[in-house]
Amino acid sequence: MKTPENYSERELPLDHTIFTTLPDGTLNPNAVGWARQPIQISNLRGHALRKKRWNYWALITPECLFSVTLSNIDYMGLAFVYFLDFETKRFYEKTAMSLFGKGCDLPETVEGPIEFNSPEMKLAMDDRGQAISIFTECPDFGGQKLEAHLSIERPAGLESLNIMIPWSHNRYHYTSKQNCLATGGTVTVGDRTYTADAARDFSCLDFGRGIWKYATFWNWSSFSTRIGSELVGVNLGAGWTDGSNTTENSLLIDGKVEKIGEDVIFTYDTQNFMTPWKIKSAFGNQVDLTFTPFYERIAKTEAVVIRSEVHQMIGTFKGTLTSQNGKTYKIDGVTGWAEDHHARW
Questions:
Q1: What's the whole-model pTM score?
Q2: Got the DSSP string for 63-98?
Q3: Cα gap 92→83, rounded to integer Å
Q4: For residue 21, what is the DSSP state?
Q5: Spatial separation of the C-alpha atoms in residues 306 and 216, rounded to whole Å
Q6: What is the bridge-based pairing of β-strands 34-35 and 161-166?
Q7: pLDDT tens digits, 296-328
Q8: Which domains does the chain have, with CATH numbers?
Q9: CA atoms within 13 A on the CB side of 286
């Protein structure tokens, strides 16, 4: 039988769904590759304490960034919310933990309802395909109440990057990275309400399901924007895909995914993350960006078996993206993020 690496960059057909895991818990080699729609079903089996699942959402408006995540890493469930006001640089973050992931139930598919309830936080993510709703409530969010109501649109035909990263038959990760999801609604922090306009603002989804190695590192960068009448989204990563013969790099041009098979190089100062980053295609010219941070979010977790340190930089991008047909898109002042993440989990 061919190894998964032999066809790790193949494009999967969209005419049927496919399970990512065989009955014995190993990787289904027929699931290795990428698709333009989330046809993969993440039926993870076995591998006690190694399964990692999460749904991460982030909204950017001209005024703020709002993010909410529910994750289950087998021995721990984590729900967290954070918020940044761009003008004042007011930042708040709240995390609720659940031993062995109790109450952190996540579906095998992108679509489906999710709920989490604790004294610290309530959240609901109801993904019905073309319409997604998110509700979040924290009674004590930096000493004040947080309440968010978001309505997210996923138009029929809008593509996304849905890819299996195969480290081995026993260690693998499926991710659906979805950009340019138009979002309306409100985020209220204390006595101030921030409004998202679906004609202007976008959310991003990072859906992840996999069997992970204990020690990992990754860079991740993402943004969504509109250039003229075209939607332009970017998903770039490095580090965690090493050794898999594939990448998670892609552009979303006017609703269509353009997969980037080559690596993208992140160059930055680990002693001062606030200095500008350079993010560039290793060989070609599809990606040539300078990222200038204006805020550093540092998230550290240290427990008996978990250690994680994230430097998520919020800032603006400038440079060029080049589509497969040779068209160049000028990026100037688009807000997004780039991060450095080391984890033992």
A1: 0.96
A2: SEEEEEEEEE-SSEEEEEEEEEETTT--EEEEEEEE
A3: 5
A4: B
A5: 12
A6: antiparallel
A7: 999 988 776 778 899 999 999 999 999 999 999
A8: 4-344 (2.40.370.10)
A9: 24
